[in-house]
Design brief:
Oligomer: single chain
Number of helices: 16
CATH class of the largest domain: Alpha Beta
CATH architecture of the largest domain: 3-Layer(aba) Sandwich
CATH superfamily of the largest domain: Nitrogenase molybdenum iron protein domain
Number of domains: 2
Structural class: alpha/beta
Strand content: 5-15%
Largest sheet: 4 strands, parallel
Order of helices and strands: HEEEHHHHEHEHHEEHEEHEHHEHHHH
Number of strands: 11
Helix content: 40-55%
């Protein structure tokens, strides 16, 4: 009996040891698999990567953790500044003089790379190489050749390059995609929610405005005030978005250069309800020059100067600045529908998007001849 107990005890110890070895081998196998996965993406000293599918449908290998980004051009720079200013390692171009009052100085001092591609391409390879961005990001309207353009740029720079489509209607989705790419979803979802709120507000207002009550709007630019953005131009989308009509119809939309050129005789024929001047000089011309006095909008005092600090509210460039423009123009034309305190909206928008706390004095400056 005693020998049997000793034999059973030895057998138990043997079984436990065998189980322990099996578990150890299993764990070792699991750890080996994990290391293998990491090694696959970090071999040859490379950073661990993941696959990101951009708006062009391209599968791009990007670092799992992105800390340094470079914009491809001015539109990308503007959007990336609103969502991820501290990840920018450089600029496509300097901030405008009017923007500098609202942009913290540390961002103004970032190196300039120039525009990466397009007719105004001015890339400084040396400056870009020194900054070593993890990824180059292009943001804006999808061109027909966007896939080829991005592939070519990525091949030339040997840096992951992605395209994120962004227009007035899909800006919330653009910010969500940026958050997925850069990992700062808390910040980007705030921006996406704000944009969606403005889109929903404008849609509700449009549905409540009868066709007979739609206001017609002429956007005046150029030295003589006779350059404009006709119906169909993406620079004029804010007019449509708020529920108004573009006074300039039946003309080819020119979204580049000085836009569409019209004559004063055509304006007198169209008789817009409201005129928006893109600068103080144009506003002064329209409100004081006798040749403009035949326009009903001038006689009624319906001439306003578009706010342009730090960026034109109507869409120059055609980016996120249009979301405060929708609220400004909507409240100007249809106060019974929008019911906004535009000064409060400016404070919220500038803090959230431009990272700038504006004073009452600055708001008065922004809204000069605009309300």
């Amino acid at each position: 009996m005693k020998k049997r107990q000793i034999w059973l005890g030895a057998l138990s110890i043997l079984l436990l040891a065998t189980a322990g070895c099996s578990a150890t081998n299993k764990n070792t196998a699991n750890h080996s698999t994990d290391r293998s996965e990491v090694q696959q993406s970090t071999e040859k000293g490379q950073t661990a990567t993941r696959t990101f599918v951009d708006s062009a449908g391209r599968k791009v290998q990007v670092p799992k953790t992105i800390t340094k980004i470079a914009p491809s051009g001015s539109l990308a720079q503007m959007v990336l500044y609103t969502s991820s200013p501290d990840q920018l390692v450089g600029l496509a171009g300097p901030f405008s003089e009017s923007a500098k009052e609202y942009i913290p100085e540390k961002y103004q001092k970032l190196p300039e790379f120039g525009q990466f591609y397009g007719k105004n391409a001015s890339l400084n390879m040396e400056a870009l190489s020194a900054a070593q961005p993890d990824v180059i990001i292009d943001i804006g309207e999808a061109k027909k050749t966007v896939k080829e353009d991005m592939d070519k740029l990525q091949e030339q720079m040997e840096i992951p390059t992605v395209f994120i489509e962004a227009n007035l209607e899909n800006m919330p989705e653009a910010y969500t995609m940026l958050g997925d790419l850069l990992g700062n979803k808390t910040e980007t979802e705030q921006l996406a929610d704000y944009c969606q709120k403005v889109i929903d507000q404008a849609q509700k207002a449009r549905s409540a405005i009868k066709e007979a009550d739609q206001k017609s709007v002429y956007y005046a630019s150029g030295k003589a005030g006779l350059n404009t953005n006709s119906e169909g131009s993406f620079h004029a989308q804010v007019i449509d978005e708020v529920g108004a009509k573009n006074a300039v119809t039946g003309m080819e939309a020119a979204s580049q250069g000085g836009g569409t050129v019209v004559s004063l005789e055509q304006l007198i024929q169209w008789q817009p309800d409201y005129i928006l001047a893109d600068s103080a000089d144009v506003y002064q011309l329209i409100t004081t020059d006798s040749s403009w006095q035949e326009l009903t909008a001038v006689k009624k005092g319906h001439v306003y100067q578009v706010p342009t600090e730090p960026y034109n509210f109507m869409g120059f460039p055609p980016s996120v600045n249009r979301f405060i423009g929708i609220q400004w123009l909507g409240e100007l034309l249809y106060p019974e529908q929008y019911k906004l305190k535009i000064a409060d909206e400016i404070k919220e928008f500038y803090q959230l998007f431009y990272h700038s706390s504006v004073t009452d004095e600055q708001i008065n400056q922004i809204l000069q001849n605009a309300d």
